Amino acid sequence: MKLKWATAAAVHLVALVILVRPEKGAAMWFNLPAGGTKCLSEQIYSGVLVLGEYFSFSGSDGSPAMTVQVKSPLGNILYEKDHVNNNVTAGRFSFTTTTEAAGLYVICFQSYRTSVNSTVSLDWKIGIFAKDWDSIATTEKIEGLELELRKLEEATKAIRQSTLNLMIKDVRMQRMSNKTNAKVVRYSLISLGVCILISALQVWQLKRFFRHKKLL
Fold it and tell me: Transmembrane ranges (predicted)?
């Protein structure tokens, strides 16, 4: 009876893992116009593993004739590849974000073809999706339910970290909003004081004028 209950619990737990664990999105495809540039961006937090793979198809000759560049929010070039002078149609890059470089990461594809458009596939994996779970399972000798639980644990940590990052961002925005409101109030008081001063000077000037004309 206990064995049946444990088996049923394990089955339900596996089902829960499958339902809760987010699936990896498919690679995106887009057209790169001849002689044009297309950039894609992704908001990535600190301490996150990023893995990217791309593939280019350019019609008859198959030569991509393009350059690929990945930049951090600080403007540092994390990856740069020249596919103009070779027939390599695919590439791969990986990096881990640092604390000071959390923000918007940009990848740009620039075509050097003159007449034919290119079709580019980009698979941008972030966090737990960038990990090689087959290697982890082999190294740590885990499989089946234990491996799924490990993935769920990593997904939970990622969600928790994202929530904390959003809370920190919200606090920063709130502080910025409070500072802006304080500046607006201060400038409003200064403007009001200047208006009152100018009005008082105008009244004084009018009184002086009327007294000079002996109208008062």
Answer: 184-204
